[in-house]
TrEMBL record, chain A:
Species of origin: Psychrobacillus vulpis
Transmembrane domains' residue ranges: 21-42, 81-105, 125-143, 155-176, 185-207, 232-254
Protein name per UniProt: ABC transporter permease
Keywords: Membrane, Transmembrane, Transmembrane helix
One of the record's GO cellular component terms: plasma membrane
Pfam families assigned to the protein according to its UniProt record, in alphabetical order: ABC2_membrane_2
Gene Ontology molecular function terms on file: ABC-type transporter activity
TrEMBL record, chain B:
Superkingdom field: Bacteria
InterPro entries: AAA+_ATPase, ABC_transporter-like_ATP-bd, ABC_transporter-like_CS, P-loop_NTPase
Family assignment from sequence similarity: Belongs to the ABC transporter superfamily.
Pfam families: ABC_tran
Classification of source organism: Bacteria, Bacillati, Bacillota, Bacilli, Bacillales
Protein name per the record: ABC transporter ATP-binding protein
Domain ABC transporter: 3-228
Gene Ontology MF terms in the entry: ATP binding; ATP hydrolysis activity
Keywords of this entry: ATP-binding, Nucleotide-binding, Transport
PANTHER family in the cross-refs: ABC TRANSPORTER RELATED, ABC TRANSPORTER, ATP-BINDING PROTEIN
CDD domains named in the record: ABC_DR_subfamily_A
Entry-linked PROSITE patterns: ABC_TRANSPORTER_1 (PS00211), ABC_TRANSPORTER_2 (PS50893)
Species of provenance: Psychrobacillus vulpis
Length: 262, 302
């Protein structure tokens, strides 16, 4: 267990050194702010900037529920720009260690592959949790200020559900970072795959059930309707299985020394 | 401590990097693994350091698989990179803790080890700013930190300038008194300087496993080199006919003459030259072949 803590410490140390621990939460705070602020002021902005003639803004459209706006923060901000930011900030997770030879070097010490992977994913996931939570809370504050209140229990539960989808994003990026060597390829595959996962929601109920992005949908419907669908639990278990799968693939790849083939 | 390498083979796609390689290493020895570029030295070193899996065979330390004995091995990669954003001291703390040493003991030990590798004043500088020689010395410090019984070094001096090379060689001379060392190199004079025993590897196969003295005495040839004025070159054909001459060979302006028995025959050869009124410019009884010549002979011909 000990090497795991040393490796995790090193990750945090590195995040502090390159200020990731500051900029990632800030980016998410901005993302979280954007949706409620834009939704609220958009009619005013349009009225002030656009040639107003001929455009009528339906006044009922503005009257959005707070839960709806918070849900759109997840669905439109975090699930689009957010995915790209998470993948890009995590893509070097293992790839950088492979490129510098540090991965091989670390494994010449009495360190198991699992403690290496666990150190990576837990430290990075915690950072993303903190960033997403900050962004989400800021969004929540704006929503309660500008729109109607959202029940705190719904808000917290939706965050927990959403964070399992985030866990999959991080573990998937970790797997891609383990297998591929170019940062561009890692970013491309990571972003495209996760965006596709998010986009195909609603095509078919069975696909939704095994799609980790379904968790995002569950979080959103909880915020909008105030209740969760019964398929949440199956979806939750399958998402955890996907996460386990990505970690097993990464473990296999590293312990078989596949990264050493050049 | 005893390292056994048993019939290790490693293939990369179509190329066999290491082929049925076996050797044993006893405590306190310093062994140089030498061979031309691409001979499989690095691959073998990586298998011993458990960075690569071998396709066949096994590496045992004290009879146990090497992957279970990582604590007993110190490894220095060919280009030790470390984390660029760490300071020298942090690097040693990190690697030391990974090797299972407590932080408290490391804090006590690190100044001593930094002094040993001559980096005392540099402990709080980032690794990014280090020169190649300094990185190599930090790498050695890291390999020594957990007091391993075997240190494996991949080309420890090949990438360094003459000053860095000298520093690292002196350091290896120093640590060789305390531990067992296996190092690979293609620079023979370095191996000659620090190691007693050589293993020569070519195309992944071991072609020689011997000591310096053995190698030289085995390759001691009864040879004289004669340089003569160009007008007398016809004498060489004459020499070739002499009963005690085994072989003549032109080497530029010199003739290499191999005799049956150097002590008895060299004066007879001079006498013969004088009798034929040959203009001798130089007459030299050969010294031993240098390691380099022996190496070339082994690697190129075999």
């Amino acid at each position: 267990m000990k090497p795991f803590f040393i490796l995790m410490n090193k990750e945090y140390f590195q995040m502090i050194r390159d200020f990731k621990i500051i900029w990632l939460p800030i980016v998410f705070i901005f993302l979280g702010m954007t949706q409620p602020v834009l939704t609220y002021y958009l009619p005013a902005i349009l009225g002030a900037l656009g040639g107003g003639q001929g455009i009528t803004i339906d006044p009922t459209m503005v009257q959005q529920e707070g839960g709806q706006v918070l849900a759109t923060t997840l669905g439109s901000q975090f699930d689009q720009l957010g995915i790209m930011i998470i993948v890009i900030s995590m893509m070097a997770m293992i790839q950088a260690d492979k490129a510098s030879g540090m991965l091989a070097f670390i494994l010449t010490r009495p360190v198991t592959v699992w403690s290496y992977i666990a150190g990576k994913i837990i430290s990075n996931y915690l950072l993303v949790i903190v960033s997403v939570t900050f962004g989400y809370f800021v969004s929540y504050l704006y929503v309660s200020y500008l729109f109607t209140d959202v029940p705190i229990s719904h808000m917290l539960l939706a965050l927990l559900i959403y964070l399992t989808w985030v866990l999959f994003m991080v573990s998937f990026t970790l797997m891609i970072s383990t297998i591929f060597n170019g940062q561009g390829v890692i970013a491309l595959i990571g972003i495209v795959f996760l965006l596709i996962c998010r986009m195909i929601i609603g095509i078919h109920p069975t696909i939704d059930l095994i799609n980790p992005a379904g968790m995002s949908q569950h979080a959103m419907s909880l915020l909008v309707t105030g209740s969760v669908d019964s398929s949440l639990y199956v979806n939750l278990i399958i998402t955890f299985l996907w996460v386990l799968f990505t970690l097993l693939v990464s473990h296999f790849w590293i312990s078989q020394k596949k990264f050493q083939q050049d | 401590m005893k390292l056994e390498i048993n019939n290790v083979s490693k293939r990369f796609k179509d190329k066999t990097a290491v082929n049925q390689f076996s050797m044993e290493l006893e405590i306190g020895q310093c062994v140089g693994l030498i061979g031309p570029n691409g001979a499989g030295k690095s691959t073998l070193i990586k298998i011993i350091a458990d960075i690569l899996h071998s396709d066949e065979g096994e590496v045992l330390l004290d009879g146990k698989r090497i992957s279970k004995m990582k604590r007993e091995i110190g490894y220095l990669p060919q280009y030790p990179n470390f984390f660029q954003w760490m300071t020298a001291r942090e690097t040693l703390l990190f690697m030391g803790q990974l090797s299972g040493i407590s932080k408290k003991r490391l804090i006590e030990d690190i100044p001593t080890i930094l002094a040993k590798v001559g980096l005392t004043g540099e402990q709080n500088r980032k690794v990014r700013t280090f020169s190649g020689g300094m990185k190599q010395r930090l790498g050695i410090a890291q390999a020594l930190l957990h007091k391993p019984s075997l240190i494996v070094m991949d080309e420890p001096v090949s990438a360094l300038d003459p000053i860095g090379r000298r520093e690292v060689l002196n350091l290896i001379q120093e640590i060789k008194k305390e531990t067992t060392i296996l190092l690979s190199t293609h620079i023979l004079s370095d191996a000659e300087e620090i190691c007693e025993r050589f293993v020569i590897i070519k195309d992944g196969t071991k072609i020689e496993d011997t000591t310096m003295t053995e190698l030289i005495s085995r390759n001691h040839e009864p040879v004289v080199y004669v340089e003569i004025a160009p007008k007398d070159h016809s004498w060489i054909q004459l020499v070739d006919q002499l009963p005690y001459v085994k072989k003549t060979e032109m080497m530029g302006s010199k003739v290499k003459i191999t005799l049956e028995n150097i002590d008895v025959h060299k004066n007879m050869l001079i006498q013969n030259a004088l009798d034929n009124d040959v203009d001798i410019v130089r007459f030299e009884v050969s010294g031993n072949d240098t390691l380099e010549e022996i190496f070339l002979k082994l690697v190129v011909s075999a």
